[in-house]
Amino acid sequence: MNSEAAIAMLVDKFPNLLDRVDSPLDAFIASPYLAYGLFAQEVIDNRSDRTFMDRVCAFIDQLAESGDKLLEEVLVLSVLERVAEDGSLARELKGKLGVKAQKLIERVESEYFGRTN
Asked: 68: domain range?
């Protein structure tokens, strides 16, 4: 998958992210790392919205299971690293994620933050 397709996939699932940029075009000319970083901030800001978090977990599972190198990389570096800064948010997500995504967030917690199960 290329960068534009990765961003389009994100914006298709979470169109409200366009509210975080000056113009919709900005979202598509940005790097996917920046776009997915904005998504991570949206997750942090809206963690109390159960419906939103269910959609987030389904999307994270989709990315983790995609088998796409770019999607897995932006998931780990731009999303999971940001949300795992907060141990309680990481635990909350782990309880709702599929096996592959759980393993990725556990790896992030271990390698970046020194936390283990």
From this structure: 3-113
pLDDT tens for each residue of 69-84: 999 999 999 999 999 9
CB–CB of 75/87 below 8 Å?
Answer: no
Place of tokens 């907060």: 86
Q: Given this model, what pLDDT does residue 27 score?
A: 55
Distance CA 50, CA 103 (A): 22
Which residue's structure tokens are 């995504």? 101
Q: What is the tally of structural domains in the chain?
A: 1
Angle at 17 between CA 11 and CA 20, to 5 degrees: 140
Q: Maximum Cα–Cα distance for the chain, whole Å?
A: 41
Contact of 8 with 28, CB cutoff 8 Å: yes
